[in-house]
Specification:
- By secondary structure, this protein is an alpha+beta fold.
- The protein folds into three domains: about 425 residues, Peptidase S8/S53 domain (Rossmann fold, 3-Layer(aba) Sandwich), CATH 3.40.50.200; about 140 residues, Jelly Rolls (Sandwich); about 80 residues, Immunoglobulin-like.
- It contains nine helices and 37 strands.
- The strands form nine sheets. The chain has a seven-stranded parallel sheet.
- Helix 7 packs parallel to helix 9.
- The protein is globular, with a radius of gyration of 26 Å.
- The protein starts with 9 loop residues before the first strand and ends with a strand.
- The N terminus is likely disordered.
Length: about 675
């Protein structure tokens, strides 16, 4: 007797780890590629409809379709949100290289690494979305392959400046880009960006986005809802943020880098002066609202990062002031007065990291030899993006052309950032100022005094790492993971504290009778210093121990709460100040998890398994008489696998579930009750 599963077998998202060079070159597996294609088709259909509707209303509602504001930022109408209100986007270096210590890894730098982005493994893996396309004929891009998106012709000053900070050759030394040896760049304008990002995600490892959704003030127009004193879009996780998280989850080597925005620079007109805004909470026509009241926020406090900047799986970048010689310590680092601060509505740490964004000298689009200075998180973001490309280059040189997962790269830069502001992470600097020297040294010292590991945690599993500290520096352990996309709250919801974290992993460090917990921040007291405790909101967690003058033995434990979506979660672990001496895992049936047990006949039996190697996988249910009552077999990729088995027609009793994957055979007792 054979029974068919009542649900199709679903392959979970697979992360292909370092060591498989072919997988590295593909960046995504076939299942992920199909998921991205399907998602792109869905996005494309909704984008076309939404943009057509928005443009059809633009004249009657007095919306700007495309314009420059008083400070030269590009504004573009993108579509409608779920309230039927408009969605607008707004655009938000040797000195920059010194500030983030990127110059220490470039040719002639103190670390002797000679990194410039010239490695073939990086070809066609960097892109920029901006207010327009870049001026590819600038002399700083000579000899480089600049790919312009089909049909896009609007050459943009802002985009050209950003691109120069990324990859300018250095004909003028002051304008040399972070990854000046990078030979390729793909350039897109930000219209329909989500669809284009999904279309291209499978082949990218980094993209730069120096723009964001308009929220609060722009010049003398207030874009918050009438009756609200703050714009709900600040800190809000919307459909665009959700889409970016889904794309990142499906493309696990791809890191989207976005500016935190310059909302602190948009304060609106003086109180009592005429301002404009939406007619009502149900009518988005822009009208004269009369004298500005004093209770409307001036975008000058915490919680001023809008929508996509609040996505979980991206790197959101703030800005600090100039540091021409590089910082000596975190005390030298001063936050820029224009950059956006967190938190997100659910209290997550944003921005993630800071770069240098004040008076950055780079390319302009007026001629082949035009240059100029600009300030903003638009400038700090390519300072970071271009630098991160060099970290991927260095890692690939040491690992046979393998690249880091995006979670590893993000975790590494958060782990090694130069702490500024309050001790630990905060809502101004995030984890601190990017420190390329320390990040590169962590890669150099991997398995010596640092430990970088990409691993997988299955449902019900706990993993422990035995470590021996050096005694010369604090033990610091950071975990980062690419989390599945979360649900979106109702449009107009203010400060919803419901966590957007789906797979809640945990990390702790134990030793000498002390348990060290990760940093936590309180969104109700955004200016307060971080404390230690249970972090159930961030997908980057860090534990830091006190300095000890002697070597000690500690244990780092990785576990999870609740049920993991797709049955497991890939994560990246970075440890410094110690050497790992052993790794153990405690789980059910060596990576096999079956639940609920016992199960009744109204339930479905869920089977979760971590497939070590792609190939055939067979699942059988065998009754006490030895008969096979259920059997299924299919070819599956490596990684997390899950399926459901209907038991409605099975008799009550004890069964054995047998799972065969390659040469691995697992069995587990199953009980079915009426």
């Amino acid at each position: 007797m054979k029974l068919l599963s009542s649900a199709a077998i679903a392959c979970a998202i697979t992360l292909l780890f370092a060591g498989d060079v072919f997988a590295q070159r593909r960046l995504v597996n076939e299942n992920q590629r199909k998921n991205l294609e399907n998602f792109s088709d869905k996005l494309r259909a909704s984008s076309i409809t939404g943009k057509q509707q928005a443009k059809g209303l633009a004249t009657s509602k007095k919306w700007k379709v495309r314009a420059a504001n008083s400070v030269g930022a590009t504004i573009s109408l993108q579509g409608l949100n779920r309230r039927g209100f408009p969605v607008f986007l707004r655009t938000s270096n040797t000195e920059a290289a010194a500030a983030t210590r990127t110059n220490t890894v470039q040719p002639g730098g103190e670390l002797g690494l000679d990194l410039s982005g010239s490695s073939a493994i990086l070809t066609n893996k960097l892109a920029i979305w901006d207010g327009g396309i870049i001026y590819a004929n600038h002399r700083e891009f000579a000899g480089k392959s600049i790919t312009i998106a089909t049909g896009q012709t609007n050459i943009d000053e802002h985009a050209t400046h950003v691109a120069g900070t990324l990859i300018a050759r250095g004909v003028t030394p002051l304008a040399k880009g972070m990854a000046f040896g990078m030979s390729t760049l793909q350039s897109f304008d930000f219209d329909d960006d989500v669809t284009e990002i999904s279309d291209n995600a499978a082949g990218l490892i980094l993209s730069n986005h120096s723009y964001g959704d308009i929220a609060g003030w722009d010049d003398n127009t207030w874009y918050g809802l009438p009756g609200d004193t703050v714009d709900y879009l600040f800190g809000f996780y919307d459909e665009r943020a959700q889409a970016w998280d889904k794309i990142a989850y499906e493309a696990p080597y791809y890191l989207i880098v976005e500016s935190a925005g310059n909302s602190h620079a948009y304060n609106g007109p003086p109180v009592g002066s005429t301002y404009f805004g939406y007619k009502s909470r149900t009518d988005p026509e822009i009208v004269d609202k009369g004298p500005r009241p004093e209770n409307i926020s001036s975008n000058d406090w915490f919680d001023v990062i809008s929508t996509t900047g609040n996505a979980k799986n991206i790197l959101t970048v703030g800005s600090v002031g100039q540091l021409p010689g590089g910082p000596e310590s975190g005390n030298d680092v001063v936050i820029s007065n224009f950059g956006g601060w967190g938190p997100t509505d659910d209290g997550r740490i944003k921005p993630d990291i800071c770069g240098m964004g004040e008076s950055v000298y780079s390319t302009l689009n007026f001629s082949t030899q035009a240059y100029g200075y600009k300030s903003g998180t638009s400038m700090s973001t390519p300072n970071v993006t271009g630098s991160l490309l060099l970290l991927q280059e260095y890692y690939s040189k040491l690992h046979s052309d393998s690249l880091m997962l995006s979670a590893t790269l993000k975790g590494l830069v958060c782990h090694t950032a130069l702490d500024a502001g309050n001790a630990g992470p905060d809502y101004k600097f995030g984890w601190g100022l990017l420190d390329m020297r320390k990040a590169a040294q962590a890669i150099t010292n991997n398995s010596i005094s640092t430990f970088i590991k990409e691993n997988n945690l299955q449902q019900g599993q706990t993993q422990t790492y035995a470590i021996s500290t050096t005694g010369t520096e604090p033990l610091v352990a950071t975990i980062a993971w690419t989390d599945p996309e979360a649900t979106v709250a109702e449009a107009g919801t203010l400060n919803d504290r419901t966590p957007k974290l789906i797979n809640d992993l945990d990390i702790k460090v134990s030793g000498n009778g002390v348990v060290y917990q990760p940093w936590v921040l309180d969104p109700e007291q955004p200016g307060a210093a971080a404390t230690n405790g249970n972090n159930n909101i961030d997908n980057v967690e860090q534990v830091r121990t006190t300095v000890n003058s002697s070597a000690n033995t500690y244990t780092v434990t990785v576990s999870h709460k609740g049920v993991l979506r797709n049955g497991g979660q890939n994560y990246s672990l970075i440890i410094s100040g110690a050497k790992v001496t052993g790794v153990t895992s405690a789980s059910t049936a060596e990576g096999l998890s079956v639940y609920p047990v016992p199960t009744n006949q109204n339930n479905k039996l869920t089977v979760l398994y971590n497939v070590k190697k792609a190939g055939p996988l067979k699942i059988q249910l065998i009754n006490v008489a030895g008969y096979i009552v259920y059997s299924t077999e299919q070819s599956v990729p490596a990684g997390n696998f899950n399926t459901e088995i209907g038991v409605a027609t099975m008799a009550s009793g004890v069964y054995v579930l047998k799972l065969t994957s390659g040469t691995d055979v697992h069995t587990q007792k199953v009980i079915v009750l009426k």
